[in-house]
Amino acid sequence: MRNRLVRAAAPAAAAAVLLAMCAGCSGGGDGEGTVTRGTLTGELTGSGATFPDPLFQEWMSYYSESIETRVSIDYHAVGSGGGIEQFLSDTVDFGSSERYLQESELTVAGDVRGCAAVQFPVVFGAVVIALNDDALDGLILTSEVIARVYDRQITHYDDPAIAALNPGMELPHEEIVPVHRSDGSGTTYVFTRYLTTEVGFWAEEYAEGTDIDWHADTLGGEGNEGVARGVTENPGGLGYVNQSYALSAGLATARVVNEDGVPIEPTLAATTAASEEAEIPDDFQFTIDDIGGDGYPITGANWIFAYECGYDDETAALLRDFWTWALEDTQADRFAAELGYAPMGRDLKERVIREIARVNSR
């Protein structure tokens, strides 16, 4: 199904529109964040995706300093693969990933504690193509060209395939240095899922996943930070990162041609609209594919994993309260918008909050 998106003209305008949309669905009361309660105690430990780490750190710091001041929440950005592994090995209270748990992993999770896993999305974001050269900001790329760059069929910026997409841009005869994630990564899953659904040879030779057998002539970096560093430190660098990392590093980004043949700049509004158009089933196992209209085509979500049983009462109460706060409070939405993430709309938030209530319900 084609996803139709509406996009604001600039990131600042998009954030303002998004916060206005979310104002009626938050539980912050006065719109400036929940009043300090101090009713809970305890500690939480989580691990997983680097994709939401800047936002999670803001959420967790604000919550423990301004909402529940007697709690501590520690999140380790080890990558989606590590987050799934640590969750399934029961070494953390919650896991995080940019892909949902597959059926085989849900089976393993059920064996860990003798009850079902609970998984739910908390935020959406774009995976952008970051570029080393500011002069290339706005470079137009297609899924086919991106796939051929990472397969090393296209090795220079002035390749005819890129030049044909950018007739008004002076392209350097500079070698492209493709940078990818070297760790198990949900960002890699979103990126390769996009290429797999769009490019036939990629689906046959690489496919989708958190770990990919990359071409030998590409450069690896650990975490979004490692990829961003690989892009900035190598002339000709090109890599895929979460939008917030590109923004914080001030990286040039490419426009990507979507399903309708429109080159789209990655913006917050485009990501938000994609999340609204996605068909999300009751089990929250979904992908965002075939985006057309004004929508940016490489969009993904972040999931949180917990269990229906096995927590002590203090930990369970803190788990439920923190993630409910993150979805209900206007300050939490404001942090997301400022950092380039897309909070969820009212209806989806209500569904997710009902799912959070399953944590330790058995």
Automatic annotation (TrEMBL):
**Keyword terms, alphabetized:** Phosphate transport, Signal, Transport
User: Which residues are in the PBP domain?
Assistant: 37-329
> What cellular component terms from Gene Ontology apply here?
ATP-binding cassette (ABC) transporter complex
Q: Which domain of life is it from?
A: Bacteria
- Spell out the Gene3D superfamilies in the cross-references: Periplasmic binding protein-like II
Question: Where is the secretion signal located?
Answer: 1-28
A single GO BP term for this record reads: phosphate ion transmembrane transport
What family does the entry list? Belongs to the PstS family.
Its recorded name reads Phosphate-binding protein
What organism is the protein native to?
Streptomyces radicis
Q: What is the lineage of its organism?
A: Bacteria, Bacillati, Actinomycetota, Actinomycetes, Kitasatosporales
Give me the gene this protein comes from. pstS
